[in-house]
Batch of 4 targets.
Target 1
Amino acid sequence: MKTDDWTQLLTDAIYVQLIYSHPPDLSKVSIYEVVLDREASKLGLRFDIEDYPDRPPEKWIASQFNCAHFTIHVVGISMLRISGWSHEMVGSLEIEKVDSGVRVVFSNGQVSIECEGAFLSLAKIAGFNCQR
């Protein structure tokens, strides 16, 4: 089931909602890291998004950050498919509710990552300066 507000699927959505008045746009993300944790049965994705917060923390403003950097975890993996790989991992990220919990899909034409798990958690959100 698609939802307009993917942050509602996070176990700790409040941290995103504090700095964004709207669900951040995931139509263009740049993935830097994909981590599989066998012991915790989780997939970690570390990525930047172009949608900068409209209510950034004072620290981000003082540091003149212009990018938001997220790390999310799909926990309790029940299905995982990875097809292709690339040094440049810019594409769209879709997050939706499914019967088993959540589904996260990244795709860019060369790379496809699809994962289903029990729940989705926000491990980290940070600001930094990126080249634009």
Target 2
Amino acid sequence: MLAARSVFRPCWARFASTAASSSYKIVVIGGGAGGLAVSSTLSEKLGAGEVAVIEPATRHYQQPLFTFVGGGLKSFNDTHRPMADVISPKAEWINQAAAQVDPAANTVTLADGSTVAYDYLVVAAGIELNFAGVKGLEAAIGKNGVASNYSPQY
């Protein structure tokens, strides 16, 4: 199956794996901008089957475009693409969450309990929103012009 060509959608299509190979040279936790940049560069240098990306999301969001959505210049639909279209074809996409890292054993345990071994681990898991961490923000967000570029909800 081929995807249509565009800036964000390469001419190849990918499908996620929920069952991982037992071992990779490099494992990247996170399929955001950082994780994708690292995995793309390294998988091009090392070749197919050497790099895995552990990412449970099926959509990749381009958060810098959220500012344009807020300004009325872009639609929210312009800010995301299927994860399968943005991961390098030479990298293995493991469509699960990383549940635990064991650096002594060089393994990552996935949400389903299976493990993935690595020689090198890159952690690029992104941010976790914590609106409760700022006093009064939970009550104010989404009202009276209080917004966040990190969440399309606000």
Target 3
Amino acid sequence: PLYADDLQFANNDQNTNFYFDHSYHFECEEKNIVGVCDYGIKVTAAVQKNNIYGVQFHPEKSQTSGLKLFRGFLNNI
């Protein structure tokens, strides 16, 4: 599940499942992390800096959760 507090993720439940297709993950400054998932360690799944967002998962393959995420982005631009 993705654990996120950010406005863009507000249309999804706090613990939302998204589709991950690989085990790669990125590291960044803690202040830019807006979503994490737990694979035995805390893995950064979503980042935000100013008006730029990035996600490590595939919202386009995440069915209802992905559609809600896209809706959240579109409603806030």
Target 4
Amino acid sequence: MTFIFQKELSHIKNFLRLYASNRYIYLRKYIKSNKKSKIRLLDVGCGVHSPKVIEALFSTKVEYYGIDKIDIKDSLDKKYSRMRFIKIDLEKELEILDKKLKNNFFDFIMMNHVIEHLENGLEVVSVLCKKLKEGGGFYIEYPGVRSLSLPSMKGTLNFCDDPTHKRIYSIQEIGNVLLKNNFRIIKAGVVRNPLMISLIPFRLIESIFYNYSKASIFWDLFGFAEFIYAIKKNNSYKHN
């Protein structure tokens, strides 16, 4: 009975992610607008959780590539064997990554809450820009300057709650890197999803039931994160 309940809850959560989680919203829209049967997705700083969500939501639509500083493949079962992973330290081995990844290869790149852990985040973004095809989408999300003024909470509500956070980035500086690399900024701003905010009471109950950190539940309410979404222009594109 408990297994069935957990399975149903997992299905509900995955469905909600399609409409409440910003990065999956933009990925879903990109897939929908793309005529290809499958797109190549690069998930930067993927961790163990993100591949599982992608498999559940987009398994038939995505050829998945993940990057992380730890060995992800050993932490996943055979169900995820077709996914490809690269173990690399983006601060120490960026040149190696540049050589490993083909230019103009990926259709969509996600960099979700990764750049704030890097001193060289802008250089990483610049390298990744080359790896995206013309017409490809680039989604970046990170704690905004507003997070410095939020109260401290276990699980990170204030930027400084996480000792691995190294740098505050801004829409302006990330946007300028993207513009320099021939991207068109589609949308940028504070992450505030009304559906995510409306689900706060239910997520609080879930966090108590499963005993996990509550901080991220309030991110959308308090405007903890910023995001920027851009499309790589064709070389023939001319701005009027």
